[in-house]
Amino acid sequence: MKLRVAVLTISDRSSRGEREDLSGPALVDRVEAAGWEVGRVDIIPDDLQIIQATLSLWADSAAFDVILTTGGTGFAPRDLTPEATNAVIERYAPGLVEAMRAKSLTITPHAMLSRAVAGIRKRSIIINLPGSPKAALENLEVVLSVLPHAVRLLIDDPRAEDGHRMSV
User: Residue 144's domain spans which residues?
Assistant: First the structure.
């Protein structure tokens, strides 16, 4: 299944052109290497309303199966990505972030400081990833293999359960 993905970098400095965005392009490269289509890439500031509006617009457009955010998931005062995501999702997908955090904890104890969230709005899965390129890619790798199945379930594809039925 070829997923349609959007990548949203959330960073005050990158949105102002003061720092190059390395995470967004790294995610785009990995998504394309998986054979999926990247339909939208943008950089916005750490602003609650702008994040909410962008996530809502992208999810409501029905143009993307998966929306990946990078940045704004830590403890800094302007790290508001989880709050914005919580405000727009309709259902939580806690297993995705639980798996990402568990794997990340094998790499660094700082993983327990992640406040990332994942959830569903309409027929899009929104996943918060860390702002560092290395951590964003490590976290994406954890969930990459389940995303096609998750999207099939979300769009109510009759083939979603193929391979899950027990033979009698």
Answer: 4-158
168 located within any domain: no
pTM of the shown model:
0.95
Asked if residue 167 has pLDDT above 80, the reply is no
In this prediction, residues 57-75 reach a mean pLDDT of 98
Residue 164 lies in a domain: no
Q: CA-CA distances (angstroms) from residue 71 to 33, 52, 89, 115, 145? A: 22, 14, 18, 11, 22
pLDDT of residue 1: 86
CATH of the domain at 33: 3.40.980.10
Domain count for the chain, please give it.
1
Is 130 among the domain residues? yes
Report if residue 163 sits inside a domain.
Answer: no
